Amino acid sequence: MVRGITLLYGLYLLLPMGLLVLGSFGQSWTNTLLPTGVTGHWYAELWQDPSFRKAFGSSLVVALSACAIDALLALPLAYALYHGARRGGGMAARLVSAMPVAVPAITLGFGYLLVFNTDTLPWLGSTPLLVAAHAIATLPYLTNTLLTDLRHLGLERLEQAAATLGAGEWQRFTGIVLPSLRQSLLSGLVMVAALSIGEFNLSNLLAGFQNRTYPVVLLQAFYGATGFACAATVVLLLLAGIAALLSSTVFRKSP
């Protein structure tokens, strides 16, 4: 029974992806269950489309910028939460862990829309606002990854030994904590990049015409040729799959 449920669930997940792949190689797909004909020109047309190339570049810029900001913020934040939880301040750590579920991205997007679409803060549609929104939305995921690794590693003994030798808090953080979190940081940043590239709600609300991200342009493609839209979606699925594979590989290699 468990295997049957697992099989049905797997089919439920894979069937839409399989149909997208078929549609990306189909000549025509109009009012039929499956596409007709075989062609590869949708991918060539996608490569030649300037709006998709620009949107892909915008997504990479936003994702890499969000990774850089999250790395700078998540490391000290996870370290502070780890020591705060050891001193009885575990509520803050639980709040950080629940933030991705408790605060949906579309809620943040509407908040930014109200605040940054004013004469005082006319930043709506700007790339810095989009980067900041992606960084804030993905920060809890990276923080929670690092926090979990800190709990697993149990570095308090090494820190105590370093403290008895005269090492200050900054020396302990850079000499013990950072090297120990290297693998989980890399894995978490890959996850942040994947989440940022696939993020639609925030980007659709905040991006301007000049800095539209890949998912925003992808939605507009479905109003045109179905095969072209399927090819564009398959590219996004491949990016997500590669990011997931890299993240899991790094995680398996972590000590």
UniProtKB/TrEMBL annotation:
<comment type="similarity">
    <text>Belongs to the binding-protein-dependent transport system permease family.</text>
</comment>
<dbReference type="InterPro" id="IPR035906">
    <property type="entry name" value="MetI-like_sf"/>
</dbReference>
<feature type="domain" description="ABC transmembrane type-1">
    <location>
        <begin position="56"/>
        <end position="247"/>
    </location>
</feature>
<keyword id="KW-1133">Transmembrane helix</keyword>
<dbReference type="GO" id="GO:0055085">
    <property type="term" value="P:transmembrane transport"/>
</dbReference>
<feature type="transmembrane region" description="Helical">
    <location>
        <begin position="221"/>
        <end position="246"/>
    </location>
</feature>
<feature type="transmembrane region" description="Helical">
    <location>
        <begin position="94"/>
        <end position="115"/>
    </location>
</feature>
<dbReference type="Pfam" id="PF00528">
    <property type="entry name" value="BPD_transp_1"/>
</dbReference>
<feature type="transmembrane region" description="Helical">
    <location>
        <begin position="60"/>
        <end position="82"/>
    </location>
</feature>
<feature type="transmembrane region" description="Helical">
    <location>
        <begin position="185"/>
        <end position="209"/>
    </location>
</feature>
<keyword id="KW-0997">Cell inner membrane</keyword>
<keyword id="KW-0812">Transmembrane</keyword>
<keyword id="KW-0813">Transport</keyword>
<dbReference type="GO" id="GO:0005886">
    <property type="term" value="C:plasma membrane"/>
</dbReference>
<protein>
    <submittedName>
        <fullName>Putative spermidine/putrescine transport system permease protein</fullName>
    </submittedName>
</protein>
<dbReference type="InterPro" id="IPR000515">
    <property type="entry name" value="MetI-like"/>
</dbReference>
<keyword id="KW-0472">Membrane</keyword>
<keyword id="KW-1003">Cell membrane</keyword>
<feature type="transmembrane region" description="Helical">
    <location>
        <begin position="7"/>
        <end position="26"/>
    </location>
</feature>
<feature type="transmembrane region" description="Helical">
    <location>
        <begin position="121"/>
        <end position="142"/>
    </location>
</feature>
